[in-house]
Amino acid sequence: MDPVGVATAPPEARPGPAWQSKCPWGAPKPTSISCSLADVMSEQLAKELQLEEENAAFPEVVAVAEGPFITGENTDTSSDLMLAQMLQMEFDREYDAQLRREEKKFNGDSKVSISFENYRKVHPFDSDSSEDEVDWQDTRHDPYKADKPTITPKKGFIGKGKDITTKHDEVVCGRKNTARMENFAPEFQVGDGIGMDLKLSNQVFNALKQHAYSEERRSARLHEKKEHSTAEKAVDPKTRLLLYKMVNAGMLETITGCISTGKESVVFHAYGGKYVHYFTNEDDKVIPPECAIKVFKTTLNEFKNRDKYIKDDYRFKDRFSKLNPRKIIRMWAEKEMHNLTRMQNAGIPCPQVVILKKHVLVMSFIGQDQVPAPKLKDVKLSSEDMKKAYYQILNMMQQLYKECNLVHADLSEYNMLWHDGKVVWLIDVSQSVEPTHPHGLEFLFRDCRNVSQFFQKGGVTEALNERELFNAVSDLNIAADNEVDFQAEIEALEKVNEDHVQKHGKKVSAFPSDGDPPIYDE
What we know:
Layout: H1 3-8, H2 18-22, H3 37-40, H4 43-57, H5 80-107, E1 157-158, E2 165-166, H6 170-180, H7 202-228, H8 237-248, E3 252-261, E4 265-272, E5 290-296, H9 308-311, H10 317-320, H11 325-345, E6 353-357, E7 360-364, E8 367-368, E9 371-372, H12 383-402, E10 416-419, E11 423-426, H13 440-457, H14 466-474, H15 483-504, E12 506-507, E13 520-521
Antiparallel strand pairs: 1-2, 3-4, 4-5, 5-7, 6-7, 8-9, 10-11, 12-13
């Protein structure tokens, strides 16, 4: 045997006793992997060893899909775009960090914090967020929900000795009142003071509670009023039903829209149908091609100061006291229908009555192609046309007083239309009364004043003043040096006529003249 080979043989290769190889307490056989120094210093070998350990510890981990993960090792720095993205990511990280520091400095220890989250720049490959950031949707505690006040036990107090707190404690009651504000109506804005530990005193809470109830009742009244009353350029459901029936019955073809609004009514334009057979028991009659629908408003606000026109009218005096206030409006529409009928029979230019249904009055339309005739105040007339219009109105006032036994009571340039460039038409006669009305002569004198002032300003030299025009219309020939004495004479005549009516129960004129209104019994 070669002595050199024996000396160089490894220890485990040398022969030994059998008991030494079978001893359970023997030292384990050392294992060594022969490798070079270059392999030990290789990073690739280190990564492979680490990967093997991870696979052995977590054998079932799903491999992550490869994506465009940017690192300093696998990045191609030769691309300007990639370098720009990396610089932008670093800048965004620094900006967000500075923003978080500013936010923390700004809020400090305040209970109400201001978030700068909307100003942060979150890169699509960088979703880094602060550790102290809280996602309120993932927490069970809602910061915008009021904390329940401490419940006072049945004995009425908590604590002992000097630390006793009753249910009447100012702080406890204040927090309870703040929590009770959630029970107010949704329309009542209570603000967002939850989380501020607000404490409302009983006096303040009771005032807010009473105001909330008042606002709720007021809104309910406004809603009901809107549903049951006629508003500007609109009608309530009952009025719409009446209009639908007129269209369905063939009396009206279509309703185009609103043409005029006033204090007491709204006027719509409509195209007439063929005949009337649904609303009346009379024979069928021809409907005008164009109609005006006057809808009297069903609210009583505008009629509070106008009841004197109807309650003292002898034609409706007995019916006025027996009806409720809402039916007075229907009587107002009926009154205009009767006045227009009188004027039409006398030949005075005025709208022709088609049908009256409750508070809806259908008349002929003064105009053409949905364009109403202009009012006298809106049209510019020449001196000849102005003079012609003045004499027409003077003649109509005399006819109205003597033949129709009526006083317009609201005659002015607003209620006179200039149609076809040559004729004046009178409208709005719902307030017209008879001359024997307790204020009939006063209304006539007021009409004369309006007409006289308008035409004198228009340059009509032949226009009479109000006193001369009053005598020309009524033929009373009242002589007075000034307007005060003239009005006193008018009031005296009205008083005499009123006393005679109360004694004899009949309407009679107390002033004898050839042009007196006709006398008739009730």
